[in-house]
Design a protein that fits this description.
It contains 14 helices and 9 strands. The protein is an alpha/beta fold and about 290 residues long. The termini are far apart.
């Protein structure tokens, strides 16, 4: 049975913890933390989870003189989801906001998310713009995250636009077994629990594209075996998705960044084999349109 964790509108000064995960990017981390420190609505705690980086983080950490900042370094590389779960464990706030080290929050991010919790939200997502290209945005105009919408894929934003009540995340934890689609998987499980999941249809953070270790760059050399591993979230929710939506998600995943990939015909053949011709045709059409 799901217990209600709603916050009364009369409650004030609800504590917020921010969890920033980082791996080998101390310079980007500084920009991310700076964006948190510039928030109109300030958090009570800023937790940095370093996923066993070899890079020296001390100069970046020493540039901040704020006792709200907690730094934790994992002893071995454990991945983004395990890092986020560790952040939840170390947090003390009733609300948790998540930020990847390469993204930047706009100054009103926490203020607008906080307002939704005063109106009894249990989880919140918002839109984003592309860092350096503010006219390029991803915004879903719906004001509620629904199962029907998520069956189409993640038409919302990623983890840097997400926050939730700590109680929710202690029950619906990040899946450490997934290396792709972690945000979509979490959103699905939150909506399955009938939590009040709100979407703010405005770009409240800046998403950094084009990193050398980003998925777009990796897509050029990704093998079929690596791509199959990325399908784990779809197979996990196959029954919930329904067969048509499942096939479409598989095709969408396999043909991601198809214009960047080598051996395009082999990728199309792989998609047809696993998802069918119709799903592959629809996915290819979408990828070609978005690449124009």
């Amino acid at each position: 049975m799901v217990m209600s964790t709603n916050i009364s509108q009369t409650q004030a000064n609800i504590s917020i913890s921010v969890v920033i995960i980082s791996c080998e990017r101390p310079d980007y981390l500084k920009l991310a933390v700076d964006s948190v420190l510039r928030q109109i609505h300030q958090p009570t705690q800023i937790i940095i989870i370093d996923d066993c980086s070899k890079a020296d983080y001390q100069p970046t950490l020493q540039s901040f003189s704020d006792d709200r900042i907690i730094y934790y370094r994992s002893e071995q590389r454990c991945g983004a989801n395990s890092s986020r779960n560790k952040g939840v464990e170390l947090s003390s706030g009733k609300i948790l906001g998540f930020l990847d080290d390469d993204d930047i929050w706009n100054e009103t991010f926490l203020k607008e998310h906080y307002t939704e919790y005063l109106n009894n939200a249990e989880a919140v997502i918002c839109g984003h713009s592309v860092l350096g290209n503010p006219s390029k945005q991803q915004i879903n105009l719906q004001t509620k995250v629904t199962e029907d919408e998520l069956r189409k894929g993640n038409t919302f934003s990623g983890m840097s636009g997400f926050s939730a009540l700590r109680d929710v995340l202690l029950e619906v934890q990040f899946d450490n077994n997934l290396n792709n689609g972690q945000d979509w998987d979490l959103f699905v499980r939150i909506t399955q629990q009938k939590r009040r999941f709100v979407n703010i249809p405005r770009p409240l953070f800046q998403y950094r594209k084009g990193l050398a270790d980003g998925i777009t760059s990796k897509a050029k050399t990704m093998t079929f075996d690596e791509s199959r591993i990325r399908l784990a979230s779809a197979y996990k929710h196959r029954e919930w998705l329904g067969e048509n939506n499942f096939r479409q998600r598989v095709a969408d995943q396999l043909l991601s960044f198809i214009v960047k990939k080598q051996n395009k015909l082999q990728w199309l053949s792989e998609s047809i084999k696993l998802a069918g011709f119709i799903a592959t045709f629809i996915a290819l059409k979408k990828k070609l349109v978005t690449s124009l």
